[in-house]
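Students often ask why we bother predicting the structure of a whole assembly rather than each chain alone. The short answer is interfaces. A chain on its own may look different once its partners are present, and contacts between molecules only exist in the joint model. In this exercise we take two input lines together and write out one structure for the complete complex. Read the inputs first and try to guess which parts will touch.
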Amino acid sequence: MDESTFRKEVADWMAARLSGRFACLKHRGGPGDEEAWPALRKEWEQEMAAGGWVGLGWPQAHGGRDLPLALQLAFHEEYVRAGGPGRIGHIGETLLAPTLIALGTPELQRRFLPGIREGREYWAQGYSEPGAGSDLAAITTRCWQDEDGNWRLQGQKVWTSLAHESDWIFVLARSTPGSAGREGLSFLLVPLDQPGIEIHPIRQMTGEAEFNSVFFDGAVTDADCIVGKPGEGWKVAMALLGFERGVSTLGQQMHFSHELQLLIDAARANGAARDPVIRQRIADAWIGLRGLRDNGLRMLEEDTGSTTVRPEALIYKYAWSNWHRALGELAMDVIGVAGDVRAGEDAGSDALRRLQQVFFFSRADTIYAGTNEIQLNIIAERGLGMPRG
Amino acid sequence: MSSLALNDEQRALRETVADFLAGHGNARKEADSDAGLWRSIAELGWAAVQVPEEFGGLGLGAVELALLMEEMGRSLARTPFFATVVLAQGALLHAAGEAARQRCLPALAEGTRSATLILGPGLDARAGSLTLHARRDGEGWRLEGESAQVLDGSSAELAYVAARVEGGDGVALFEVPADAAGLQRTALEVWDLTRPQAHWRFAGVSLDAAARLDVPGSAAAGLARAQALAMLQLAAEQVGGAAQCLALTTAYTAERVQFGRAVASFQAVKHRCAEMMVRIETARSVVRGVAARVAAASLDDAALAAEAAAARVLATEAYRYCAQEAIQLHGGVGFTWEYDPQMHFKRAQWASQWLGTPRLLREALAAQLLDAA
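Now the answer. The structure tokens for the assembled complex follow.
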């Protein structure tokens, strides 16, 4: 299909459907704003599913559309351009589903992919623990099989985004007693609504609670709810993280672009745009976004034949998270003392609310999914071949 | 969406250039090695990459030229390439009329002649910054004024000179032989020995009518476009220099042992090398992206200026950071004449001031972003 025709198709669909009762979702949701209308956003996910916009890159055999990369990128750009709300089904659609398609059994694929594709089942990610953050392999949550073969789990996961809105969680747990590090782990799929699981929200510095502690006390799941073999969990968990740098990257950049435009509008409105230092910093923000964009395009397009190390992919998380954090600081310097006052929920406060969210929530950007410090270690060791410390 | 991926020919070109320059680098050799290196580069056809085939060139584009420039920056090659190919050819391609291009470009593409470009200080193309004046003199022209710092000013055989035309005719582009009567050239003692400069005084230089190359009224816009494209190529060169700083540093710190372990194993050192890589790869991505869009002719003049400015700011900051960190992480030897970081430090400083400083480039972008009606 022709890309511009496809873009128009997306834009037309968004204009028609992101209206009426869904209109309040424009530019809402996503990291830093997950408390905005979660129930309505799930209905929106089903609207999208019915429109055929979930699983664009999945193989047709699994109910996807198998669209080429360029069209997937076009979709994400048009989606954000139209103000499409932050996705609540992305953990299932972009992380678990590709993992199941690559490493899951046909039975698991048949059981779980339709629920994700149709926007009926939502997923959370159970990796981090109180004692296993940057050192993820230090996981102590245990799992074992009962006599009937069912899996049982005991332990605690933490920083679990959207667990309170999810139906299922994929969990990395230790199945070999006495094992340590990357050995002896298994990757289990566990229903959240059961007596053996308690979900406690964690209030973050923004005052909201987007992530949780998830306690497993003899929680249970079916014998076949495991991806890979027992003991191969680390390999599966890492494969899943490999899908994280997917095509949604450029959609994220459209969000950033929208935030930068809000900042520019604010600076023009309150006169900060005349301050020579603010002008330099706004130009730098624009330049940095060009850097993210071309880096993202290079990451998605560059030949894979010439080298195994992809420097542009290695640096990407560090680059975008630090750019975003600096954007938040700049936003608050533009807003000035008015930034002290928490923005309301009314439509007239949309821009101020979003910019305040960028400032506060971006402090998490440089911590989750590999802290700045871990990212620099990875870049030095994998990208530059420097010795492990 | 133009692809950032290199094709097989482009990858092969990059490897050929890198191999050649690794064996023929001259940054530390006597100056008389320069002529030989330039001859070899010309024989390899690299001076012809961006020149259209109708003018005796290879008809390739910004992507191939950027690959060459990145390798030149890495090796700190001291050649007329930047002034002749990037600057002089660029001015001819974008600001000279058809007949002038036909006449002047083949010799520059063959590399049989070396040339330079004179704009305002620091290669500023804006009319208000030009320091030379042209006055009608019978059928021809007479040039007056000074250019304080001309790149390759002692070695270039030709100069392409932007001058303000007295009597309100705007900006004109002239070809001036370096041995023209009335032209006084004085070599300058510069810190960056790989970027020689000279002071030029035009004490009434007489030129015939054919020396004016532009189509009247079009030179200013053409020079602005040439300047933006030169910014992109300078950014590519800066990325190469920055990458070499990082390569030198990781190699040195891997060998240097203190406290019984390689210095490279200390996290404080690793993190700074990683930071260098982040800046280099970000700048490289933008250079690659802008070059691809230039090659695909998908940028209008305003977009080209903005995107080239982004590439230049990122590359300038990356190169300065990497050169400074290379000295620091080499420790004492980083401060010596014998080790290479000091040469990159000087080149990085040179490059930060020509073709627009980061501060000016940011302000120009801010005006586009903030001051529109």
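Check your guess against this: Chain B touches chain A at residues 1, 3-6, 11, 246, 250, 253-254, 262, 264-267, 269-271, 273-275, 277-278, 281-283, 285-286, 288-290, 307, 309-310, 313-314, 359, 361-363, 365-366, 369-371 (CB under 8 Å).
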